[in-house]
Write a structure and sequence with these properties.
The protein has helices at about 1-10, 30-45, 55-60, 75-80, 95-100, 105-120, 135-145; strands spanning about 20-25, 50-55, 135. The chain is mostly helical. A three-stranded mixed sheet has the order 1-2-3. Helix 6 crosses helix 7. The longest helix is centred in the C-terminal third of the chain and has 17 residues, at about 105-120. The protein starts with a helix and ends with a helix.
Length: about 150
């Protein structure tokens, strides 16, 4: 969140007129207190959050299967992602959009259903306990609506 504030600096930002700032981040080593603080700052500043627990690769996994069992960390997510029939040649920061695009609707559906299950269980989405989860689908839907 500090990075978003620093990037904006003194530039005008008008959320009431449709401006949006999305903060995309992973659980990483963040504690629940840090994640809670990030949520509070986002609400106060009017930022949107695309959160993945434990890592962004959960979003990619949802293109192939309904990942509901916890994933230990980013490395474990990448290992699952590299299984036969998925993104076998996956590497961090490698362009995979074209490979994933045909499966995007299924991933959005799976991500939204997972969030709904966690909410029904009263599990805070921005917490270590929400593993696995991603709200990247919200950002993707927003971007798709602008095309």
């Amino acid at each position: 969140m500090q990075k978003a504030r620093a990037t904006i600096g003194y530039s005008p930002y008008y959320p009431d007129e449709g401006d949006m700032i999305w903060c995309v981040f992973d659980r990483d080593d963040n504690t629940n207190a840090m994640l809670s603080k990030a949520k509070q700052v986002a609400i106060k500043e009017g930022y949107q959050i695309a959160f993945s627990n434990p890592s962004f690769e959960v979003w990619f996994l949802l293109h192939f299967n309904n990942q509901t069992t916890p994933v230990e960390n980013c490395e474990a997510a990448i290992k699952l992602l590299k299984k036969k029939g998925r993104l076998e040649q996956y590497e961090k920061n490698k362009e995979v959009y074209e490979q994933l695009k045909p499966l995007q609707e299924a991933a959005i559906d799976r991500a939204k259903k997972r969030v709904a299950v966690l909410q029904a269980e009263h599990t805070e989405i921005l917490s270590r306990e929400s593993n696995p989860v991603t709200t990247v689908a919200e950002l993707v839907e927003y971007l798709n609506s602008k095309q």
